[in-house]
Amino acid sequence: MLSNYETKADSELVARTMRAVADPARVRLLRLCADRATSVSELAAATSDSEPNVSRHLKALAQVGLLRRVRRGQRVEYQPTGESGFAADLLGLLLSRLAADDAALREARARLHAIEAGARAALRGSAADWVITSRFGRNLRMALGAEFERDLDGARLLLRSQHREVLELVLKNEVALNNDAAADGAGAQEITLRAASKPEKTVLQSWLETENFDAEVQTSAELRASGIFDVIFEAPLADELRDLEQLDSLLQRSRAQFADGGVLWLVVPYDLLEGQSAPPLRLRALLAEHDIDCLTLAPVEAEGRHVLLARGRVRSARKSAAPEHARSETNLLLGSP
Q1: Superfamily of 135-323 according to CATH
Q2: Nearest-5° Cα angle at 273, 271 to 276
Q3: Which of 38, 150, 171, 208 is least buried, going by the fewest C-beta atoms within 10 A?
Q4: In the prediction, which pLDDT does 237 show?
Q5: What DSSP string runs through 126-162?
Q6: What is the mean pLDDT of residues 286-309?
């Protein structure tokens, strides 16, 4: 027999669970989540309710064990509980007794189906336009080599590239590194993809979800408020680097987001650097102006594109201050002000 305390506890659980489903909107949400795992934003659009209201309903249902919250990359979904017990029994009863021709449920299902179909169609177009596969991407990946993979080991990485070959190299490498880190009890690698705008962010998040990769996506504006990285890889899109002023802005932004001694990998169009000095010398000088020591330079060419791939290390604060200190001492010796 159950003790009085256990009977009371069971009664309270039953009462809480019954209260959680004492709302037609919540019963419909249970049915929609049982149809397929669904996000808050999709359920809000399907039911014509606000996201805060839907989130509150889902939280109440999850607290009593009727639903569970599952993260898939950047996406958070709700689906029926997989555990046995009173909540699972009640869920089965509710779903079996809910009329299939319920008007509000039928309308919500239709909207959810349209949202799903529209998202698939939009992703096919936008992801195919943004995340590209090319011979140039393959050559760029080869040029990165083992040195790039060593830089990534356990690093906080900020990545900007639309080349599938580079994205897959980084994200697959992350899976392997994190598996090794978990086995060794070490910290996991952190990857953030930089998007220039919110539409790009949406495309990248959808692509990550489709490819089953786990990474965070932030816009350039969001990154200004936070984010310090050990490694930054910048392969800007063609229209993002039209002149040296834009390159200078990119270097300023990157420099502000680096941890001390961080490593920058940078892809710059060769013709952007043409002028009085040779492009490799000019790029080295530009990096030095931002306290970044150029370690290696490699040309990459394919499909009519010719770029320089640079690897540089950010000077530590102490090292950056040294040249100014040395100049001050020299001026004193020479009697200059």
Answers
A1: Vaccinia Virus protein VP39 (3.40.50.150)
A2: 110
A3: 150
A4: 83
A5: HHHHHSB--HHHHHHHHHHHHHHHHHHTT-EEEEE--
A6: 93
- CATH 1.10.10.10 residue ranges of the chain are 4-130
CATH architecture group of domain 4-130: Orthogonal Bundle (1.10)
- Rounded Cα distance between 309 and 102, Å, is 60
Least confident of 174-183, 263-272, 277-286: 174-183
Residue 335 has pLDDT above 60, yes or no: no
Looking at the chain, the domain(s) classified CATH 3.40.50.150 span 135-323
> pTM of the predicted model, to two decimals?
0.59
Confidence of residue 214 (pLDDT cuts 50, 70, 90): confident
28/104 Cα distance (integer angstroms):
8
Task: Please tell me which residue, 269 or 177, carries the higher pLDDT value.
Answer: 269
Cα gap 195→199, rounded to integer Å: 8
Q: Which distant-in-sequence residues (6+ apart) come within 8 Å of 14 by Cβ?
A: 86
Give dist(CA 2, CA 240) in Å, integer.
Answer: 70
For the chain, the distance separating the N- and C-terminal CA atoms, rounded to the nearest angstrom, is: 94
Q: Which two structure tokens, joined as six digits, stand for 300?
A: 């990459």
Asked if residue 325 has pLDDT above 90, the reply is no
Q: Contact 17/65 with Cβ under 8 angstroms?
A: yes
Q: Are strands 156-160 and 292-302 parallel, antiparallel or unpaired?
A: unpaired
CB 232 within 8 A of CB 254: yes
CB 191 within 8 A of CB 208: no
Continuous H helices in the chain: 4-20, 24-35, 40-47, 51-63, 86-97, 103-130, 135-152, 164-184, 198-211, 220-225, 244-256, 279-289, 317-334
DSSP 208-231: HHHHT---EEEEHHHHHHS--EEE
Rg, Å, the chain Cα set: 27
Q: Across the strands, what pairs with 267?
A: 309
